[in-house]
Design goal:
By secondary structure, the protein is of the alpha+beta class. The chain has three helices and six strands. The strands form two sheets. It has a four-stranded mixed beta sheet, with helices on one face. The chain has a two-stranded antiparallel sheet with strand order 1-2. Helix 3 (about 125-135) links the parallel strand 4 (about 110-115) and strand 5 (about 170). It is elongated and about 105 Å long.
């Protein structure tokens, strides 16, 4: 009897404090704990950067962490040949003080906005850009040591695929623009 009186006293006290009664409020799934997705490590792949070898466009393989990031690929191209590549490779692209802005269009066009005070590019420099951008999606080669945990080879992201033959690069400089198609680009070597 004492428990019943205590329960009734508690009920009267709660109703007397001004809190209106309500039904159960549905709020979705119950909490199930904390989830912290680990970021997927970038799988390095080999892409072809186009430099000049005795004036001829030539593909030079480079390891790139995220080939779908065209900005990184273009920045590496503007960075020029590595020390080991300079034995045979040259470039007509200028060394940039700032990173160019690279935008992939919905089709096969890519726009590259260069920093201010960069002179118009030569025809070989434009071909270096067009061929590198055009073949970056077609020249993925997963490195053998970089397979997924289940043993499957790494694959390029689907959204990065574009047709090399129909790619064009539109370069915007300080008061000038140039466009170059990749129709005459040599094929990169097969891995």
């Amino acid at each position: 009897m004492t428990a019943l009186l205590a329960g009734l006293a508690a009920a009267f006290t709660l109703t007397a404090c001004g809190v209106p009664p309500s039904d159960v409020i549905q709020a979705g799934e119950p909490a199930s704990g904390m989830f912290s997705p680990s970021p997927k490590p970038s799988v390095p792949v080999v892409v072809s950067l186009y430099f000049l070898d005795d004036g001829d466009l030539t593909a030079y393989p480079r390891k790139i962490g995220d080939p779908a990031d065209l900005g990184t690929v273009v920045a590496r191209l503007f960075g020029g040949p590595t020390t080991s590549e300079t034995v045979t490779a040259t470039t007509e692209l200028p060394r940039l003080t700032d990173t160019p802005d690279v935008t992939a269009g919905s089709g096969n066009g890519v726009s590259i906005k260069l920093p201010n005070h960069v002179a118009p590019l030569s025809h070989p420099a434009m071909l270096q850009l067009a061929c590198t951008v055009a073949h970056v999606s077609g020249s993925y080669a997963a490195l053998p040591a970089d397979a997924h945990r289940d043993g499957a080879p790494a694959a390029p992201p689907v959204h990065a695929q574009r047709s090399p033959a129909h790619t064009s690069v539109h370069v915007l400089g300080d008061g000038w623009t140039m466009t170059q198609s990749a129709d005459s680009c040599p094929d990169p070597p097969q891995p």
